[in-house]
């Protein structure tokens, strides 16, 4: 349980999340993930990183139960900073990052895959931001990198999800495969990337990031300011309490 790193092929590092039951990461998990990604990217022998997950789904966002159980805003602030660091670690990784997505990819999961260089998805993968239903805001920055602007807004306001096939039609998912073949397909793409000159790959990643029209780190932190405002205004706790009650049988 936690974040693991392995070397399944020459030049490739596999970073995997495993936080049962649904990969809703606690504060420490976001920082562990950021550290693992930065360590993998700093290794000069690595030319591509695959970000994957074990269990029922890719990522269900932050651990809301941890936030609601904590006194004050300590856990909320920790989660916000941890998410920002993990998302940035994907984007700022010196080599390309391929996300291998299965099951649900929600909330913080969108922040991760939206900052990845390529996405391979299982047929059962669904992508969305249930933030408004959880008393939060954020990651519209990253959803906007996956779907057209008006679809992003509709998905955000309704908290509905999009399928892997829908994202494939929009061009943000490289390939959709049966779940059993997801890891193999992601490693196949990573291997093709890793076959290139490592020094040139690092220059290419820096160049492509440099021409992005949006500063994703600053844009996401701007969004998070509204999450703090919602909390200070008393808008968030009720939604999070209701979510915890529904998922603990107390509602």
UniProtKB/TrEMBL annotation:
UniProt keyword list: Lipid metabolism, Lyase
Superkingdom as given in the UniProt entry: Bacteria
Keyword Ubl conjugation in record: no
Short name of any one Pfam family annotated for the protein: ECH_1
The keyword Lyase is annotated on this UniProt entry: yes
Family assignment from sequence similarity: Belongs to the enoyl-CoA hydratase/isomerase family.
PANTHER family: (7AS)-7A-METHYL-1,5-DIOXO-2,3,5,6,7,7A-HEXAHYDRO-1H-INDENE-CARBOXYL-COA HYDROLASE, ENOYL-COA HYDRATASE-RELATED
Protein name per UniProt: Enoyl-CoA hydratase family protein
